[in-house]
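2024-03-11 09:14:02 DEBUG pipeline.ingest accepted 1 chain
2024-03-11 09:14:02 DEBUG pipeline.ingest length=391
2024-03-11 09:14:03 DEBUG pipeline.predict start
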Amino acid sequence: MTTSAPCITGWNHSKFGKLDGIDPEILISEAAKAAIAHAGLTPADISSIHIGTFNGGFLYQDFPSSLVFNQIPELRFTPSVRVENACATGSAAIHSGLQAVLSGQSKHALVIGFEKMSELATAAVGDVLLKCSYAKEEASIPGGFAGVFGKIAQAYFERYGDQSDALAAIAAKNHKNGMSNPYAHMHKDFGFDFCRNVSEKNPFVAGPLKRTDCSLISDGAAAMIISDADVAKGMTRAVQFRSAVQVNDFLPLSRRDPTRFEGGMLAWQKALGQAKLTLNDLSLVETHDCFTIAELLEYEAMGLAEPGQGARAILDGVTSKEGRLPINPSGGLKSKGHPIGATGVSMHVMAAMQACHDAGDMQIPDARFVGVFNMGGAAVANYVSILERVR
């Protein structure tokens, strides 16, 4: 193995969904224990802990950095930090772990992402998520964060025409893919017609977005071990970060073109350049489909389609599981679920599984280079990783 980049050497992923009666401490610790064991390590081997959770009012208990000690006392006295960056919180925790390893301070960094969203009623969840928008201008948008993306969708429709067919096709694709994901919140193949048509079970939620265009309110956790490159050479598995890029943009939508994810575009350009690859080299991408309009715009941001032409990628089958560049074979946030702090870690776990050809029925044949795009807010905090198995 020849690598100087930190490697993912173990992971774990909880079931996503409405996890009633599960204490967050148990959720975190079970994922952590299993990830440590998967890497062939013990708690004594962990140099640092990086916990990603948005919270924002989902739980009364805040200050979660030492919660994992309650169930894994062997980790006591290990440096631990909580990281938050809206819906990209999980990737922010990964970057915290990467920086600890790259600095030489950590040999093995434990990264945990989690969220327990279902304690609150749906309306209250919407109020919490609106804290990820620019409150001075956007907190009063009807429909919560769906309202923010509803405005984005409306602006895109006005500029490029009605994209309802494309959004329905994205939703149908991701729900179909989610049927193969044992960790997914929802296992239901709705089909294109249900996703395309307004009905009592699929009403409009915000602007042109229907219920099937919106990700779920989910609980869940995911964890991984990031190890020093030299140490990873002797471990059971190692998935290298060919690149790991973060780009932040303005928070207010009023300062940006809402129909273009310019921060995401720059992140992709930098990540591909750092990895010395092109988009054509990638085997698949796990991307941040918090709403179907987001996935459509991300096709354009990654360079799969020109501005205004994202619909072609889905309608021509390019992004299907059998297509030229499968997008979200896990089912994405749309089907897998979107527990805010867990999402970025979950996406990287799914990508690492694909790179190791350990993704079961989700597996893309001969997967080698795997891309991940995780964003916070409406393409405000943008993270792109490109992973490759090296052991």
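2024-03-11 09:14:41 DEBUG pipeline.report The chain has 14 helices and eleven strands.
2024-03-11 09:14:41 DEBUG pipeline.predict end
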